[in-house]
Structure formats: C-alpha cells, structure tokens
Design a protein that fits this description.
- The structure is a single chain.
- The strands form three sheets. A five-stranded mixed beta sheet has the order 6-5-7-4-8. A three-stranded antiparallel beta sheet has the order 1-10-2.
- By secondary structure, it is α+β, with helices and mostly antiparallel strands.
- It is globular and about 55 Å long.
- It contains seven helices and ten strands.
Amino acid sequence: MDIIAPSHSVFNDSRYKFLSQQLLLPINLENVPNYASLMPRLKALRYADASEDVFFVPLTYGPYGLAYNQQQLPVAPGSWKSLWNPVYAGRYTVNSDYYEANIYIAALASGMSIEDIKNVDKLNTPEIKQMLTTLVSNASQLWGGVDLASDLSGHTLATSWGFSFPALRQQGERWKMACPGKAPPSGLMATPLARLYRAALSIKNRRGVD
C-alpha cells in the first residue's frame, strides 16, 4: 500500500472509481489522534462517503481565487464577472483540471447564491454552460495542476491557488488575490491509504497511458 493525496473531487468520481472499486483502505484513526481535533464539517464531507469507515484525512486547503496583476490593473476587480468582460478577453488564464471550480465561479458571476450552488440542477442550465464556453474560449491559455509563474506571467487576470506569486514577484510581477464579494471556491487535498498497484492502474486506464 502507499499514501496518495488526491483532490477532493476524485473520491467519488466515476472515472477513477477509488471507492466503488475498493482502491482505498480504511484509515485506523488510532494512528491519527489529531483527527479528533478537525473541524466537524471537514469530517462529514459528503463527496468522500462510502460507509462508516474513514478513508481520508484532510491535508491542505486553499482558495481558487481571482488573481490580478497589479502592474496592469492597479485597482482590484470587484467581481468574478471581470473574467467575462470583453476587455479582458485573451488577457487571462484559468485552470483546466478543476472543472467544478470553474462551474462555481461561473455561477457566482451569474449572481447565483452560495446555497443554490450546492444544487446540481440549478448549475446545469444553458446559461451556465454558455458562460463556461465563453470562459474557456476567451482565455489565452489553460493551466493544469497548480499555477506556475510561467502560467500567469504577462496576463492581467487569472484564477490561481497562489502558488505562483513568490516566483512572479522575483520576476518583477506583483500579483494579488482580489476579494470579489463572494467567497471563492476552495480546494481540499486529502490523504487516503491506497492499494498502490490497483490505484495506479485505475489512473493509467483513465488517462489512456501505456
């Protein structure tokens, strides 16, 4: 077995089958005494449920934020709608992997409430789909995984976890996170125990790797 750290969105994802194919082993909480100190809501996350067993321990947490280049945009954007402003077409970049986060920011930009964002039926609308198409079409590029300085450099706006900011500063670009009025989507990395070979095989089959 091995320890892996997938993002929160893959546990019940039908493409990876981590839970349905029993690729994960239950965690012995006697070996993780600080688990009891976690916030209750982090111990009751619906997307990782499979049984009464615990399969993951939250490891890292961070915002998928609206970042802006202070040298190109001295005043912080006040809304997620900025990404749909034609003025910034071709001048921003967004992540290609965390598709659900892009759905959430489209919903926020449309004016949807935080509570309604939890409702899949309210997200699955022609308006949101069109907004996502526009978001991707008008991006100058899409970055994967975590943001690097090379992903954001030269842009005016970006979605970002903030990892690239120190390297961007060393290159002479000053980036900051905006506060667009509504809380940004967030990502949670979790540490489960996996049956290594079967988990690797599942990922290989998903990606079509030989």
